[in-house]
């Protein structure tokens, strides 16, 4: 059995590939699964960085998330704008922090 078929992709991530008014994603399941793996791995890798930044700079959790988000939105990140936003929401969820005010919570 293919490992990709066993990955449970959250609805909040699949929604990134659903154009308004459509019910089917514009990308294949394999593509969405690969992008999800990348984004989930990115959120997991950023946990320690976010904690360290919070402690070292003495800023708020929201400022840490905003700074990380700015970095993810940069050209070299390899993420789309919607993927970068999803990673930040997932990172907040993993850390037990409140999501940034202007962004909805991941499902």
Brief rundown of the structure:
This protein is an all-alpha fold and 107 residues long. Helices cover 56% and strands 0% of the residues. It has one domain (3-95).
Overview of this protein structure:
The protein is mostly helical. The protein has one domain. Helix content is 56%, strand content 0%. It has four helices and no strands. The protein has helices at 11-14, 29-57, 61-72, 81-95. α2 (29-57) crosses α4 (81-95). It is elongated. It starts with 10 loop residues before the first helix and ends in a 12-residue tail after the last helix. 23% of the residues are buried.
Question: What secondary-structure arrangement, pairings included, does this model have?
Answer:
Elements: H1 11-14, H2 29-57, H3 61-72, H4 81-95
The average pLDDT is: 90
Number of strands: 0
Low-confidence stretches: none
Q: In DSSP terms, counting alpha (H) and pi (I) runs of 4 or more, how many helices?
A: 4
**What does the radius of gyration come to?**
15 Å
Form type: elongated
| Helix content, binned percent | 55-70%
Distance between the termini: 27 Å
Biggest sheet descriptor: none
Number of domains: 1
Question: Based on helices, strands and strand pairing, what is the structural class?
Answer: mainly alpha
Along the chain, the helix and strand elements come as: HHHH
Strand portion: under 5%
């Amino acid at each position: 059995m293919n490992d990709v078929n066993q990955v449970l992709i959250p609805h909040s991530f699949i929604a990134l590939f659903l154009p308004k008014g459509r019910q089917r994603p514009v990308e294949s399941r394999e593509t969405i699964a690969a992008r999800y793996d990348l984004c989930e791995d990115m959120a997991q890798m950023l946990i320690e960085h976010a904690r360290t930044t919070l402690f070292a700079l003495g800023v708020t959790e929201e400022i840490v998330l905003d700074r990380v988000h700015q970095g993810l939105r940069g050209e070299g990140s390899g993420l789309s704008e919607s993927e970068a936003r999803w990673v930040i929401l997932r990172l907040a969820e993993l850390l037990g922090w409140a999501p940034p005010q202007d962004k909805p919570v991941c499902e």
